[in-house]
Amino acid sequence: MARTATRSSSRGAATFRCTECGWQTAKWVGRCGECQAWGSVAEVGTVTARTAAAPVTRPAVPIAEVDASHATARPTEVAEFDRVLGGGLVPGAVVLVAGEPGIGKSTLLLDVAGRAARSGVAGERRVLYVSGEESAAQVRARAERIEAMARTLYLASETDLATLLGQVEQVDPELLVVDSVQTVSSAEVEGAAGNVAQVREVAASLIALAKARGIAVLLVGHVTKDGSIAGPRVLEHLVDVVVQFEGDRHSRLRLVRAVKNRYGPTDEVGCFDLSDVGIVGLADPSGLFLSGRTAQVPGTCVTVTLEGRRPLVTEVQALVTQSSLSTPRRATSGLDAARVSMVLAVLDKRASAPIGGSDAYLSTVGGVRLTEPAADLAVTLALAGAITDRPLPDGTVAFGEVGLAGEIRPVTGAHRRLAEAARLGFRRAVVPTGVLGAGPVPDGIDVLEVGTVREAVGRALHPGG
Questions:
Q1: Does the pLDDT at position 40 exceed 90?
Q2: d(CA 251, CA 245)
């Protein structure tokens, strides 16, 4: 009996790991307990012994003696991209740029590569651009079109990881661009390019390369139908920066925001204009999110949202019509559908708005996406104007968060929002109660404080009542 127990314990316990996030368990389960992915748990081997300590080759040093100069960001000469990154690219950093097909990822990174090679930001002016989707001739044609040509910008069309690493050894660049991580595969890993195992191996190899050689790496990543980054979730955890490319494919405006950044803020946004001659940063994009019409129309309201430290003036449009369906339709574009549904419910309950049997359509102008709660009040006033067929007075902006009890809550950066509205010529602002007492109000703008949804609708749409 004792002999049997000894033999059983020496075999060890099987280990199962999630291929998406790396979560481990002692037995197989159909659904990952960490990321909730189905069918992603697979056996990876047996655990028979603990890892033994190894000799230390690089001893730990006091934190004050660590050389921080190697973590200094170097500008890319693309001001809007530097704003998102937190000042530029850090040597050894790996940046994942994700977005829908055709949104402009390759154009932006080729522009960054060309500027880095010309300006000497990349150390010895050597930049390597590896394309797994296009030939070198196609990349050169785009570089000529967007004026990204540089003598020390090297192009390669490779899909094999080993060959890509060989190109890096030969060129010895200070900046590496890989377009895209889903098209590169390793012969050491089974499966086609783009599957979970291949993406993990390629990303891990490039990250190890970046840290060992101290070069900045820009990776292009594909996205799925729901907008999330394709491939294993662990990819986003491994890289240093994750940048999301946003925008309407039918519009020239593009927004770049960092959703993860180990070297800078994650609340900044960069604005770009994508055209036939390339992609250009927009230092003052506020006017792009306004319709530009000369007459006021019922169902529209302008708000001021904060993207990082940058205030953006954006117009919200609403259309409410009688529904012919048993279940009224709710459609949104550029707005959070859940928050719009909440605002509709608050209007119905707290302001007695006849919205129950009507279709409601809401959209933003210019393809911008509003996720900040400060846009709630503008959505409320746009809906109220569409229901009553009464436009807001000319030159009106509104911002504030709407609560389920019908109250208007204050938001951060109110005076920065008012200053931006006054700069663009707006003369009237509907804001939460308490803004006037928090600081000076810019000249030329009349501030109307409101405390509830019912008060906001009444005073904004009936200023003389």
A1: no
A2: 13
- What residues pair up with 98 in beta bridges, in sequence order? 221, 244
Amino acid found at 357: G
**Residue 210: inside a domain, yes or no?**
yes
Q: Both 142 and 274 in a single domain? A: yes
- Give the tokens for residue 303: 């708000």
* Residue ranges of the binding site for ATP: 99-106
pLDDT at residue 121, as a whole number: 46
Does residue 298 sit in the same domain as residue 274?
no
Distance CA 304, CA 289 (A): 10
Distance in angstroms between the alpha carbons of the first and the last residue of the chain: 93
CA distance 297 to 250: 24
Check: CB of residue 431 under 8 Å from CB of residue 446.
no
Cβ(429)–Cβ(418) below 8 Å: yes
Q: What is the DSSP string of 361-415?
A: EEEESTT--B--GGGHHHHHHHHHHHHHT-PPPTTEEE--EEPTTSBEE--TTHH
Tokens matching residue 343? 């605002």
Cβ pair 181, 220 in contact under 8 A: yes
What average pLDDT does the segment 424-441 reach? Answer: 89
Taking each helix axis as running N to C, give the angle between helix 453-461 and helix 337-350, from 0 to 180 degrees, rounded to the nearest 10. Answer: 80
Count structural domains, the chain.
Answer: 3
Closest CA to 383 of 348, 407, 409: 348
Q: Which of 219, 198, 183 lies closest to 109, judged by CA?
A: 219
Span 293-346, pLDDT tens digits = 667 889 999 999 988 778 889 999 999 999 888 889 999 998 999 999 999 999
Binding residues: 99-106
How many residues in total does the chain contain?
465
Q: Are 340 and 332 in contact (CB under 8 A)?
A: yes
